[in-house]
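hey so u asked for the seq, here:
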Amino acid sequence: MKNILSLVAVFLTITVSAQNMNGAWKLVNQNGKTFTDECIKIYSDSYFMFAIHKADGSFVKAGGGSYTSKGKEYTEILDFYTTDSTQVRKPVAYSFSVKKDELTIEAKMHGGTLKETWKKVDEASSSLSGAWRFGARVDDAGVAGQRRGGDSPRQTLKILSGNHFQWAAFNYETKQFMGTGGGTYKLEDGKYTETIRFFSRDNSRSGMSLTFECRLDGSDWYHKGKGTTGNLVSEVWERIK
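ran it, C-alpha coordinates below
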Protein backbone atom coordinates (compact mmCIF):
# COMPACT_ATOMS: atom_id res chain seq x y z
CA MET A 1 0.00 0.00 0.00
CA LYS A 2 2.85 2.41 0.81
CA ASN A 3 4.37 1.83 -2.63
CA ILE A 4 1.03 2.51 -4.32
CA LEU A 5 0.52 5.71 -2.32
CA SER A 6 4.06 6.84 -3.17
CA LEU A 7 3.44 6.32 -6.88
CA VAL A 8 0.17 8.25 -6.67
CA ALA A 9 1.93 11.12 -4.87
CA VAL A 10 4.65 11.30 -7.54
CA PHE A 11 2.05 11.25 -10.33
CA LEU A 12 0.07 14.04 -8.68
CA THR A 13 3.21 16.13 -8.20
CA ILE A 14 4.14 15.82 -11.88
CA THR A 15 0.59 16.53 -13.03
CA VAL A 16 0.12 19.59 -10.82
CA SER A 17 3.50 21.02 -11.84
CA ALA A 18 2.69 20.64 -15.54
CA GLN A 19 -0.75 22.19 -15.12
CA ASN A 20 0.72 25.15 -13.23
CA MET A 21 3.04 25.85 -16.17
CA ASN A 22 0.45 25.42 -18.92
CA GLY A 23 -0.26 28.63 -20.84
CA ALA A 24 1.82 31.52 -22.17
CA TRP A 25 4.49 33.35 -20.18
CA LYS A 26 6.44 36.55 -20.83
CA LEU A 27 10.09 36.88 -19.78
CA VAL A 28 10.41 39.98 -17.60
CA ASN A 29 13.75 39.54 -15.81
CA GLN A 30 16.95 37.66 -16.62
CA ASN A 31 19.81 37.49 -14.12
CA GLY A 32 18.56 40.54 -12.26
CA LYS A 33 18.04 42.71 -15.35
CA THR A 34 14.77 43.74 -16.95
CA PHE A 35 14.32 41.87 -20.23
CA THR A 36 13.48 44.46 -22.87
CA ASP A 37 12.83 42.36 -25.99
CA GLU A 38 9.57 40.45 -26.42
CA CYS A 39 9.96 36.83 -25.30
CA ILE A 40 6.91 34.55 -25.03
CA LYS A 41 7.14 30.92 -23.93
CA ILE A 42 4.18 28.57 -24.33
CA TYR A 43 3.81 25.36 -22.33
CA SER A 44 1.42 22.47 -22.91
CA ASP A 45 1.36 19.39 -20.67
CA SER A 46 4.76 18.18 -21.88
CA TYR A 47 5.89 20.42 -24.75
CA PHE A 48 7.07 24.03 -24.99
CA MET A 49 8.25 26.65 -27.47
CA PHE A 50 9.64 30.13 -27.03
CA ALA A 51 10.71 32.97 -29.30
CA ILE A 52 12.38 36.34 -28.87
CA HIS A 53 11.76 39.28 -31.20
CA LYS A 54 12.13 43.04 -31.22
CA ALA A 55 9.23 45.46 -30.85
CA ASP A 56 9.16 45.92 -34.63
CA GLY A 57 8.84 42.17 -35.14
CA SER A 58 12.48 41.53 -36.03
CA PHE A 59 13.26 37.92 -35.19
CA VAL A 60 16.03 37.21 -32.65
CA LYS A 61 15.94 33.51 -31.73
CA ALA A 62 13.69 30.60 -30.78
CA GLY A 63 13.71 27.10 -29.35
CA GLY A 64 11.41 24.33 -28.27
CA GLY A 65 11.07 20.70 -27.27
CA SER A 66 9.69 18.38 -24.63
CA TYR A 67 9.89 18.70 -20.86
CA THR A 68 9.19 16.66 -17.74
CA SER A 69 8.65 17.98 -14.23
CA LYS A 70 8.94 16.49 -10.76
CA GLY A 71 8.59 18.41 -7.55
CA LYS A 72 10.63 21.59 -7.82
CA GLU A 73 12.67 20.47 -10.81
CA TYR A 74 11.98 20.12 -14.49
CA THR A 75 14.08 19.04 -17.48
CA GLU A 76 13.95 20.36 -21.03
CA ILE A 77 15.09 18.43 -24.12
CA LEU A 78 15.30 20.73 -27.13
CA ASP A 79 14.06 19.66 -30.57
CA PHE A 80 15.39 22.89 -32.10
CA TYR A 81 17.39 25.91 -30.99
CA THR A 82 18.16 28.58 -33.55
CA THR A 83 21.37 29.99 -32.07
CA ASP A 84 23.18 26.78 -31.04
CA SER A 85 22.13 23.53 -32.70
CA THR A 86 24.66 21.56 -30.63
CA GLN A 87 22.24 21.88 -27.69
CA VAL A 88 19.51 19.90 -29.48
CA ARG A 89 18.60 16.68 -27.64
CA LYS A 90 20.82 17.50 -24.66
CA PRO A 91 18.76 17.48 -21.42
CA VAL A 92 18.99 20.63 -19.28
CA ALA A 93 17.74 20.48 -15.68
CA TYR A 94 16.16 23.51 -13.98
CA SER A 95 14.79 24.26 -10.54
CA PHE A 96 11.53 26.16 -10.72
CA SER A 97 8.68 27.62 -8.70
CA VAL A 98 5.23 28.86 -9.66
CA LYS A 99 3.51 31.43 -7.45
CA LYS A 100 0.19 32.70 -8.81
CA ASP A 101 1.11 34.31 -12.14
CA GLU A 102 4.90 34.25 -11.69
CA LEU A 103 7.31 31.50 -12.83
CA THR A 104 10.93 31.48 -11.68
CA ILE A 105 13.47 29.11 -13.21
CA GLU A 106 17.14 28.63 -12.41
CA ALA A 107 19.90 26.48 -13.89
CA LYS A 108 23.65 26.07 -13.77
CA MET A 109 25.16 26.95 -17.14
CA HIS A 110 28.71 26.88 -18.49
CA GLY A 111 29.03 30.61 -17.96
CA GLY A 112 27.46 30.59 -14.49
CA THR A 113 23.90 30.60 -13.19
CA LEU A 114 20.85 31.47 -15.28
CA LYS A 115 17.89 32.86 -13.36
CA GLU A 116 14.73 34.06 -15.06
CA THR A 117 11.36 35.44 -13.98
CA TRP A 118 8.32 35.00 -16.21
CA LYS A 119 4.83 36.51 -15.91
CA LYS A 120 1.80 34.56 -17.10
CA VAL A 121 0.01 36.35 -19.95
CA ASP A 122 -2.75 33.81 -20.60
CA GLU A 123 -4.09 30.40 -19.60
CA ALA A 124 -4.45 27.24 -21.68
CA SER A 125 -8.18 27.95 -21.93
CA SER A 126 -9.02 27.40 -25.60
CA SER A 127 -10.27 24.23 -27.32
CA LEU A 128 -7.09 24.57 -29.42
CA SER A 129 -4.75 24.84 -26.43
CA GLY A 130 -1.95 22.27 -26.60
CA ALA A 131 0.63 20.98 -29.06
CA TRP A 132 -0.20 19.89 -32.60
CA ARG A 133 1.72 18.11 -35.36
CA PHE A 134 1.20 18.87 -39.04
CA GLY A 135 -0.56 15.85 -40.51
CA ALA A 136 -1.23 16.39 -44.21
CA ARG A 137 -2.49 18.66 -46.96
CA VAL A 138 -6.23 18.42 -47.62
CA ASP A 139 -7.60 18.48 -51.19
CA ASP A 140 -10.66 20.31 -52.52
CA ALA A 141 -12.85 17.32 -51.66
CA GLY A 142 -11.74 17.49 -48.04
CA VAL A 143 -9.61 14.36 -48.27
CA ALA A 144 -6.29 14.40 -46.42
CA GLY A 145 -3.16 13.03 -48.07
CA GLN A 146 -0.77 10.56 -46.48
CA ARG A 147 0.11 11.70 -42.98
CA ARG A 148 3.69 12.27 -41.98
CA GLY A 149 3.25 10.72 -38.51
CA GLY A 150 5.33 11.07 -35.36
CA ASP A 151 8.15 8.65 -36.17
CA SER A 152 9.94 11.00 -38.55
CA PRO A 153 12.57 13.33 -37.04
CA ARG A 154 11.41 15.94 -39.58
CA GLN A 155 8.46 17.66 -37.89
CA THR A 156 6.30 20.75 -38.13
CA LEU A 157 4.66 21.47 -34.78
CA LYS A 158 2.39 24.21 -33.49
CA ILE A 159 1.66 25.01 -29.84
CA LEU A 160 -1.19 27.21 -28.60
CA SER A 161 -2.22 28.65 -25.25
CA GLY A 162 -5.43 30.60 -24.69
CA ASN A 163 -4.57 33.26 -27.27
CA HIS A 164 -0.88 32.84 -28.20
CA PHE A 165 0.60 30.48 -30.77
CA GLN A 166 3.94 29.44 -32.23
CA TRP A 167 4.86 26.95 -34.95
CA ALA A 168 8.26 25.54 -35.90
CA ALA A 169 9.68 23.24 -38.57
CA PHE A 170 12.82 21.28 -37.75
CA ASN A 171 14.69 17.97 -37.93
CA TYR A 172 15.90 16.95 -34.49
CA GLU A 173 18.09 14.17 -35.93
CA THR A 174 20.11 16.41 -38.25
CA LYS A 175 19.56 19.40 -35.91
CA GLN A 176 18.35 21.43 -38.89
CA PHE A 177 15.99 24.36 -38.29
CA MET A 178 13.67 25.37 -41.15
CA GLY A 179 11.58 28.19 -39.69
CA THR A 180 9.26 29.46 -36.99
CA GLY A 181 6.58 32.05 -36.51
CA GLY A 182 4.00 33.08 -33.98
CA GLY A 183 1.85 35.70 -32.35
CA THR A 184 -1.72 35.84 -31.08
CA TYR A 185 -4.94 34.24 -32.28
CA LYS A 186 -8.73 34.35 -31.89
CA LEU A 187 -11.22 31.52 -32.31
CA GLU A 188 -14.77 32.74 -32.98
CA ASP A 189 -17.75 31.11 -34.74
CA GLY A 190 -15.69 28.54 -36.59
CA LYS A 191 -13.11 31.12 -37.69
CA TYR A 192 -9.47 30.96 -36.58
CA THR A 193 -7.55 34.25 -36.99
CA GLU A 194 -3.80 34.59 -36.44
CA THR A 195 -2.03 37.91 -35.98
CA ILE A 196 1.65 37.39 -36.70
CA ARG A 197 4.12 39.01 -34.30
CA PHE A 198 7.28 37.39 -35.73
CA PHE A 199 8.33 35.21 -38.66
CA SER A 200 11.91 33.96 -38.83
CA ARG A 201 11.97 33.81 -42.65
CA ASP A 202 10.63 37.32 -43.27
CA ASN A 203 10.39 40.09 -40.66
CA SER A 204 8.04 42.08 -42.93
CA ARG A 205 5.23 39.58 -42.21
CA SER A 206 4.93 40.92 -38.66
CA GLY A 207 1.50 42.49 -38.16
CA MET A 208 -0.28 40.41 -40.80
CA SER A 209 -3.61 38.79 -39.88
CA LEU A 210 -4.76 35.53 -41.48
CA THR A 211 -8.23 34.02 -41.10
CA PHE A 212 -9.05 30.35 -41.66
CA GLU A 213 -12.16 28.22 -41.61
CA CYS A 214 -11.63 25.94 -38.64
CA ARG A 215 -13.13 22.74 -37.28
CA LEU A 216 -12.13 20.06 -34.77
CA ASP A 217 -12.80 16.38 -35.42
CA GLY A 218 -11.67 14.31 -32.45
CA SER A 219 -7.90 14.80 -32.19
CA ASP A 220 -7.73 16.40 -35.66
CA TRP A 221 -7.79 20.12 -36.41
CA TYR A 222 -8.74 21.15 -39.94
CA HIS A 223 -8.22 24.67 -41.20
CA LYS A 224 -8.51 26.27 -44.63
CA GLY A 225 -7.69 29.77 -45.84
CA LYS A 226 -4.99 31.95 -47.39
CA GLY A 227 -1.44 31.86 -46.05
CA THR A 228 1.14 34.64 -45.83
CA THR A 229 1.89 34.39 -49.57
CA GLY A 230 -1.79 34.63 -50.53
CA ASN A 231 -1.92 31.00 -51.63
CA LEU A 232 -4.68 28.68 -50.43
CA VAL A 233 -3.78 26.60 -47.37
CA SER A 234 -5.87 23.55 -46.46
CA GLU A 235 -4.38 21.32 -43.76
CA VAL A 236 -5.08 18.87 -40.98
CA TRP A 237 -3.08 18.91 -37.74
CA GLU A 238 -3.01 16.16 -35.09
CA ARG A 239 -3.12 16.86 -31.36
CA ILE A 240 -0.05 15.34 -29.72
CA LYS A 241 0.38 16.77 -26.18
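Residues 1-16 have pLDDT under 50 and may be disordered. The chain has one helix and 17 strands.
lmk if thats what u needed
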